[in-house]
Design goal:
The protein is α+β, with helices and mostly antiparallel strands. It folds into three domains: 208 residues, Rossmann fold, CATH 3.40.50; 84 residues, Beta Barrel (Elongation Factor Tu (Ef-tu), domain 3), CATH 2.40.30.10; 131 residues, Beta Barrel (Elongation Factor Tu (Ef-tu), domain 3). 16% of the residues lie in helices and 33% in strands. It is built from seven helices and 25 strands. The strands form five sheets. Strands 1-3-4-2-5-6-7 form a seven-stranded mixed beta sheet, sandwiched between helices. A six-stranded antiparallel β-barrel has the order 8-9-15-12-11-16. Strands 17-23-20-19-24-25 form a six-stranded antiparallel β-barrel. A hairpin with a 3-residue loop joins strand 3 and strand 4. The chain starts with a strand and ends in a 34-residue tail after the last strand. Bound molecules: guanosine-5'-triphosphate. The site of guanosine-5'-triphosphate has 21 residues, from helix 1. Guanosine-5'-triphosphate binds next to helix 1.
Length: 467
């Protein structure tokens, strides 16, 4: 088994050995709760660590006068990050066990937590939230859970870490578990979506191996849960969404009339014969063939990159969306959305921006700012003057051309968009179409059980949803 890691990058679509299922997960927690150590422990105990990486960790640990290897070194790979002593960006790791493959977005716990959580968790099917058993559920735990609920992450695990430091005390664990479950259910999670597990990342209790120190804990270890938790709905239940990335027209002697549309199935599935509609034009046709470099396919499901050949010759260009004819998205040029503001300069009503949705980018104006999410009280503040860095708020978006949009809660991939600076092309915000704020008073709806069963390879879907 092998692990790969990258920081602030999108890994390629990982292989799933033996056709095992893929689980995308994110971690979140406050500084020093032990995320890096926990992820290091997962990699180490699942033997997902290469020998040379392990040697380097042993050497660095000895240099620091440690008697046992510091597993967080496996994770905190960046030199600058070690120098600052703080994890600086989202790191993606791939690891596998015989039962399942995992792509893990490790998000740091310092002040930029909203931005990083949004980045890391936007495509996650499960998030592991950490708390320090000595501190229990803290304000940041509540905020993280609220942001994860907003992002529609369907399942949460609370890892009550450093359980060794409270003497493996069952009552401490029970109190934290109760408080967290109450908070998460108020955000819309059901108990079936939640697991609370007592762990020591340092010692290894209940991460991969069951611990003899916690005979009172009957649940699964963290890895057992990750290996067995149900992964999303059947892709066939979701309607097809296929943003056209490239029009392929070779016009060579061998292929004089070939015309195909290349892209990635963003949601649902497609098979030859399927009736589709091309948006925004509204043209209807059928899928004639699904091409790949390895030959034709009888079907392609979400996450698969393919070229569609259609039955009719239509005027289709990059940025168009091919969608299920019976369940198309709505075309809108004026819609409500929740945005996570990621720029240093604040957002004010009337801002002229670009909106990037799927493979299409259009000019837009942010109309009124209707409310801002108050993370302190999990409530909403009406009519804010502005949204500052890391703020989450409800806005009105008016685009120069209609976009084929879904509600984020029914399709995380096609319900998300980016707000981009017109002048320099930097990302200003991640946007979620329709998604209400995760405020407690209004008893927000439960997080979306995403219609995207196999989320696409783009790990940073909200922050860079493809070319
Ligand atoms: N006793 C004990 N110490 C732990 C445990 N897990 C982590 N630690 C220690 O807690 C400290 C913080 O651990 P890290 O893994 O670096 O914390 P982090 O959450 O990744 O912090 P960031 O790098 O800011 O994201 C280190 O000194 C770890 O050795 C645990 O289960 N028990």
């Amino acid at each position: 088994m092998e692990s790969t890691s990258s920081t602030s990058q999108t890994p390629g679509e990982p292989e799933t050995p033996g056709g095992t299922q893929l689980l995308r997960l994110a971690t979140a927690g406050s500084v020093d709760d032990g995320k890096s150590t926990l992820v290091g422990r997962l990699l180490y105990d699942t033997k997902s660590v290469l020998a040379d990486q392990l040697d380097a960790v042993h050497r660095a640990s000895v240099d620091r006068g440690l008697s046992t290897p510091d597993l967080s070194l496996l994770v905190d790979g960046l030199r600058s990050e070690r120098e600052q002593g703080i994890t600086i960006d989202v790191a993606y790791r791939y690891f596998a066990t015989p039962r399942r493959s995992f792509v893990l977005a490790d998000t740091p716990g310092h002040v930029q937590y909203t931005r990083n959580t949004v980045t890391g968790a936007s495509t996650a099917q499960l998030a592991v939230l950490l708390v320090d058993a000595r501190k229990g559920v803290v304000e940041q735990t509540r905020r993280h859970a609220a942001v994860l609920a907003l992002l529609g992450v369907p399942r949460l695990v609370l890892a009550v870490n450093k359980i060794d430091l409270v003497g493996y005390d069952q009552s401490v664990f029970a109190r934290i578990a109760k408080e967290f479950t109450a908070h998460a259910t108020a955000l819309g999670y059901t108990e079936a979506d939640l697991l609370t597990v007592p762990v020591s990342a340092l010692v290894g209790d209940n991460v991969v191996e069951r611990s003899a120190h916690t005979p009172w804990y009957a649940g699964p270890t963290l890895l057992e849960h990750l290996e067995t938790v149900p992964v999303e709905a059947d892709p066939h239940d979701a309607p097809l969404r296929f943003p056209v990335q490239y029009v392929i027209r070779p016009r060579t002697a061998a292929y004089p009339d070939y015309r195909g549309y290349a892209g990635q199935v963003a949601a649902g599935s497609v098979a030859p014969g399927a009736e589709v509609v091309v948006l925004p034009a509204g043209l209807r046709t059928r899928v004639a063939r699904i091409d790949t470099p390895d030959g034709e396919l009888a079907e392609a499901v979400a996450g698969r990159s393919v070229t569609l050949v259609l039955a009719d010759e239509l005027d289709i260009s990059r940025g168009d969306l091919i969608a299920a004819a019976d369940r198309p998205p709505r075309l809108a040029d004026d819609f409500d959305a929740t945005v996570c503001w990621l720029a240093d300069r604040p957002l004010r009503a009337g801002a002229r921006v670009l909106v990037k949705h799927g493979a299409r980018t259009v000019p837009a104006i942010i109309g009124e700012l209707s409310s801002r999410f108050d993370e302190q009280n999990l409530s909403s503040v009406d009519g804010p003057d502005q949204l500052a860095l890391n703020d989450i708020g409800r806005v009105r978006v008016r685009t120069a051309e209609p976009l084929p949009i879904d509600d984020y809660r029914s399709s995380r991939r096609t319900g998300a968009f980016l707000v981009i600076d017109q002048a320099d092309g930097t990302t200003l915000a991640a946007g979620l179409v329709g998604a209400p704020l995760p405020v407690l008073e209004t008893g927000v709806a439960r997080p979306a059980a995403s219609a995207d069963p196999e989320l696409p390879s783009d790990e940073r879907a909200l922050v860079s949803p493809g070319p």
